[in-house]
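Loading example: each entry is read as two labelled lines plus one structure line.
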Amino acid sequence: MERITELMTSQNTISNLNQQLNQLSATENELSTGLSINEPSDNPYGASLAIQLNGQLSALTSYTGNVSDGTAWTSQADSSLMDINEQVQSVQELVVQAANGTSTPAQLDADATEVNQLIAGIKQDASAQYDGQYIFSGTDTTTAPYQAGSNDAYQGNSGAIQRSIGPGAAPVQVNTDISQLLGNGQTVSGQPAGDGLLLNTLRNIAGDMQAGSTASLGNDLTDLQTNMGTLGQMQANVGAVQDQLQMASSRIQNLQTEVQTQLSSTEDVNMAQTMTQYSTEQASYNAALQASASVLQTDSLANFLSS
Amino acid sequence: MPISSFMGLQSALSGLEANQEAIQTTSNNIANASTPGYTDEAAVMTENYALTIPNGSGGVQLGTGVDVNTISRASDQYLNNSYRAQNTVASYASTESTTLGQVQSELNEPSSTGISSQLSAFWSSWSDLANDPTGPTSQSARQTVIDDGTTLAQGLNSLSDQLSSMQSQVAQQYSDLTGTGGELQSYANQIATLNGDIAEAQQGGMNANQLEDQRDQAINNLSSLGTVSYSAAPNGELTVAFGGAATPLVSGTTVNWPPTITSTPGGELGALISLSGPGGQIDSYLTDLGNVAGALVSTVNNLSPGTPFFNPSDTTAATIAVAATASTIQTTTTGNPGANDVALAIAGLSGGQADQLYGAFVAQVGQDTQTAQNNQQTSQTLLTAINSQVQSVSGVSLDQEMTNLLTYQQGYEASAKVMTAMQSMLETLITQVGAGL
């Protein structure tokens, strides 16, 4: 039979109570922070996973920013192209009218002036800006793509502006090379003929109207319609990019939910379970305290010996 | 068969004296019931040599009383040794766990302010810059990249500093313990002095219980610093070897100072060496952190044209610094103001080498700390269990003392009664028999 001494009892009691209190305080810490991983040693793998997932969440937030920036950029492009389209339609009406051959020279002159005004309007639309950047100048975003006046040469470049729209997804190009539509305009006299693109065609139309050569207007109309085809194609492309961004946005949202769920299951406390555990531990600590109190107060033989 | 008339008085006197000594021992036990290191004592009573009285061809042996010939200590060397061995292990684990716990809290992970968050913020700022390389708000996007990069670099600098200073603190603690005037020397001196005192007492035929308690306590304390083994000489002196070194720390009354300490002395010293030594744990954390900084510098700089973003010559965690300014940051290799290929590529480093190395570093620290904490708990539980056994053998049981007290008290009273009886016998003899003369 083991001999029990007073010091032994008190030391064991202290050590046991201490152990229980430690456990209780760890559980309390989990409950008050709401996290099951408060230090890497609570769960080393979980901690590094949580760090990785938090990094992913932060990256996803960046992607969301990229997508909304790209969307704003393409919306601006879309509305500018729509404006250009309207103005080209107006030119088309004027050309059809003039080609009838019923217009007086004065009317043709007025038509030519209107076409020139529309050209200026189209060039202005091409100089649209988003956040202080010219959206149709390629990557040369500080330079307007076309100058006002008679110089129709494209001032920008053909560089691509890209936005990263998600993990593993190829960056999407948000800008449109407007020089494919508007071209470099009329060549200086004595040079070979122009590039046949929109500005060149429009200048030809204005010139032919002014010269009263209604016969040439037939050819001009054909050229104009070719360019309108290019414009339609360009608008469709912008629409496709917008769709792509839309899809990326919902994909990012799904990923965010997914990562958030995974993060939560990694580092969050299961409240129901932990509360139950806490109550159990608290009850057992209380019981231990009560038991210790009566053990430590146990009388020794001295209390029973008469003096 | 004549015997002395006063012989009974002498026997009764020896009973009074022996019981008194026993009561004194009991009293001392009770007084020291809570004294750390105190070993339960017992008065060992032996019967005095008997007086042989010839009687015809044979004789009778007449008892002559009792004597306390020694006060014994209830000490079990085997248990004491187990306690010390476990104390060494527990002390190692506790030192390691405390220090690694501090390292871990320096990391401040997982949190929204640790280096992982600073890395995320840095990559995000590049992503924002990629969206806005030239616009009117671009200047603030550039400044944010610089600021977040600086925060990150400083975060790494300060964590590296903290780890280094922790390393030197631990090394300092080691030299404090082992230096002149430190704990190691103080325990060694105590043991050597006590060795001398005990040998002297034993030579004079005395028990040196109190001195032995003190020496045991000093050896217990020594065992928390490192492994202890010892051998006893016939004169009561102990030769104490420390930390597995060939030269004993204490031989008799001599302390071999400065001590020989091996690279793995166990105990607190062993833990301090393995934490702070070259190639130790803190060293390896600094290397890990340095790899994070190195990866950051090389991956970001490889993608930055012109002025490198981080100072290319400062590739350690302690020195990493941002070299670029808001005006030297280039978002592109083409020179076109709206191009963002560089910013996009750097933002794409998110979750890359630096992040992965850092995550692995945190997991490593967490793993080491968890292991150390588990070891600490296990060894502490074992130590408590062994200590409980030691207390079972060497501790004072008040119930036992009270019973002894009662026994000795009654023995004392009975001896006194015998004396009264002898007195009345002698009185009878002197007054009744002597009255007729």
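DSSP finds seven helices and four strands in chain A.
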